[in-house]
From TrEMBL:
Name of protein: Chloride channel protein
Transmembrane segments: 38-63, 83-105, 179-204, 253-274, 286-305, 317-339, 351-378, 384-408, 415-432
PANTHER family from the UniProt entry: CHLORIDE CHANNEL PROTEIN CLC-E (PTHR43427:SF6)
UniProtKB keywords: Chloride, Chloride channel, Ion channel, Ion transport, Membrane, Transmembrane, Transmembrane helix, Transport
SUPFAM superfamilies: CBS-domain pair, Clc chloride channel
Keyword Transmembrane: yes
Localization per record: Membrane
Membrane topology: Multi-pass membrane protein
């Protein structure tokens, strides 16, 4: 045990901890006070996210080479055929591993994991770094063993998890933490695809939910530093080779727009199919931990026809874009959709980000081939249609028209296609939102009972509950009391409203004092006959939006708050004007935070 210091009377270790605490407090104050500090934190986070993304990519590529007997650097989905029929069992082994992981998590980590979109929409950017690491490892197991999914969920999860951990360490404000989490997701995705513009707009459109000037510098700093780090570590993404002259004219915009409509329809079918597969597995008697293994057997069987159905399809994309349109393209297209639905619906971890790019390329290629047969006057090269379809279908599944447009631009290095890709993306996005209403990420949240349709911050609204807004200092009176007794207790003008209660403290209705004095009933009349709003009540867990709707339905200025609808024990009183005032104030504060106004 340390001896006390003669000067202070305290142990040296305690003095050192106090000095360290003061230093940490000063650092937190500086970070919160200056916008440049947030940019510096984002840049550091980007380096860490770039390292993590590079490690994930390298590890899963090594797993593919070992498990599927590939040559060094060979992509799994670009293999012409499996090296041995026995390799169809590899996805099943991966499914068994996922089942074991699921059992372990069910015992030691039972709470649901929060992804970046949910964190920013509902939790103010708060995420668990441990949970994020687990999700990243799960995606690596799934992808590494050949499940028909990409690593994008892991990339964005680990990047945003690192960002949230740093932001919580420096006690960032809610809006700053949301921006940093968006920057983390952007950094992870951008580093994996060597696409800083795509990564940045992924953060803006998908995770933050909007573009704002204050968010631009942190998101760009994080994404650029992540991409540069990945390049320094040797990560390389081969550009998508296109014909030297796409030869597109203004009239070609018409088939491009119809391609966008087709992409919207296919995107909705894919999302519905995933849900259907998940429902069928739920209805089966197969235990949940065994479902990935069963699905893995099916995925392996599909790979007997073509390994292009395995993993995310990165290598197959480069093969398909430049090759001829054949019947095999349609078969691979159908098998890839089925393999992806089996993967997600059974419990494998991963995303449809790159899988939707590959499927979009196949769809566009088929569309271009059919168009050439049906309308020879349209000279839309199938490879061009493949690139446009790639961006359009990805928008339908993932969302983010600008995100996918920039990705196609950075993958092809061909700016002449960007306008056509963006046109198809806009049509797809609008059609999916009007007819389906969700991207794949928000659709999954919807199936869990959430109502959010994007990453816009609605968590503050859920936190602002009736329990936090209600009054507890309100006048009460027995519901079986008389008018004379009420008038004797409360003088006219002393209060506006009185809450009636029974002998057990249960709610009995509201009574305006002015109406009690204006009543022509005899003084011995029970006040309960003048009570209003007996059946319209508020519950303490209701949020501010639900409370406003309750006031509108009751056409009331005041409502009582009770513990539950059965006991109806009185807890408080809440006025509509106060609810609307608090709602407007919080909404304005959120708006100012997003725009960084003083």
């Amino acid at each position: 045990m340390d001896a006390p210091s003669p000067e202070t009377g305290r142990a040296p270790a305690l003095d050192e901890r106090a000095a360290l605490r003061r230093l940490v407090d000063q650092a937190q104050s500086i970070v919160r006070a200056r916008e440049t500090s947030l940019v510096l934190i984002a840049a550091v986070m980007g380096v860490l996210a770039g390292v993590a993304a590079s490690l994930m990519s390298a590890t899963t590529q090594w797993m593919h080479e070992v498990l599927y007997w590939l040559a060094p650097g060979e992509r799994l989905s670009s293999s012409p055929a499996l090296a041995s029929p026995w390799l169809i069992l590899v996805p099943a082994v991966g499914g068994a591993a996922m089942g074991v992981i699921a059992l372990a998590l069910k015992r030691w980590r039972r709470h649901p994991f929060v992804d970046p979109i949910e964190a920013n929409a509902l939790h103010g950017g708060r995420m668990s770094l441990t949970d994020s690491i687990i999700v990243a490892l799960q995606t690596m197991v799934s992808n590494g063993f050949g499940a028909s999914l990409g690593l994008e969920a892991g990339y964005s999860q680990i990047g945003s998890g690192i960002a949230s951990r740093l932001g919580l360490t420096f006690k960032l404000r809610r809006n700053d933490l949301r921006i940093l989490v968006g920057a983390g997701a952007a950094a992870g995705i951008g580093a994996a695809f060597d696409a800083p513009l795509m990564g940045a707009f992924y953060g803006f459109e998908i995770v933050i939910g909007s573009y704002s000037i204050p968010a631009a510098a942190p998101v760009l700093a994080g994404t650029v530093s992540a991409v540069m780090t990945a390049r320094l570590l040797g990560a390389h993404v081969e550009p998508l080779h296109m014909p030297l002259d796409p030869n597109l004219g203004p009239v070609d915009i018409l088939p491009i727009l119809f391609l966008g409509l087709a992409a919207a329809a296919v995107a909705i079918v894919i999302m519905r199919l995933v849900t259907t597969v998940e429902t069928l597995f739920g209805m089966s008697r197969i235990p949940a931990p065994l479902r990935p293994m069963v699905a893995g057997i099916g995925i392996g069987a599909l790979a007997l026809y073509s390994p292009q159905v395995l993993s995310d399809g990165h290598g197959a994309l480069h093969t398909q874009v430049g090759s001829a349109v054949t019947a095999s393209v349609a078969i691979v297209f159908g098998l890839k959709i089925l393999a992806s639905a089996l993967s997600i619906g059974s419990g494998f971890r991963g995303g449809l980000f790159f899988a939707s790019l590959f499927l979009g390329a196949l769809m566009g290629k088929l569309y271009g081939g059919l168009l050439a047969v049906a309308f020879p006057g349209f000279h839309l090269d199938p490879s061009v249609a493949a690139v446009v379809g790639m961006g359009a279908l990805a928008v339908g599944v993932i969302g983010g028209p600008l995100t996918m447009s920039f990705l196609v631009l950075e993958m092809t290095r061909d700016i002449s296609l960007s306008g056509f890709v963006m046109a198809a993306a806009v049509v797809t996005s609008l059609t999916v939102r009007e007819t389906f209403g969700y991207s794949f990420s928000t659709w999954r949240l919807h199936l869990r009972g959430e109502t959010i349709r994007g990453a816009q911050d609605v968590g503050w609204m859920r936190d602002l509950t009736v329990a936090k807004m209600m009054r507890t200092d309100f006048p009460t009176f027995p519901q079986d009391g008389t008018l004379d007794a009420l008038r004797a207790r409360y003088a006219l003008g002393s209060t506006r409203i009185v809450v009636l209660v029974d002998a057990a403290g249960g709610y009995g209705g509201l009574l305006r004092l002015s109406e009690a004095y204006a009543s022509l009933e005899p003084g011995e009349t029970a006040v309960s006959g003048l009570a209003t709003q007996r059946d319209h009540i508020l519950l303490p867990a209701m949020n501010v939006k639900e409370a406003a709707l309750a006031f509108d339905a009751a056409k009331a200025e005041d409502l009582a708050v009770v513990d539950d609808r059965d006991n109806r024990h009185l807890l408080g009183l809440l006025g509509e004007s106060h609810v609307l005032k608090r709602y407007a104030a919080e909404l304005e504060r959120a708006r100012r935070g997003l725009g960084a106004e003083d």
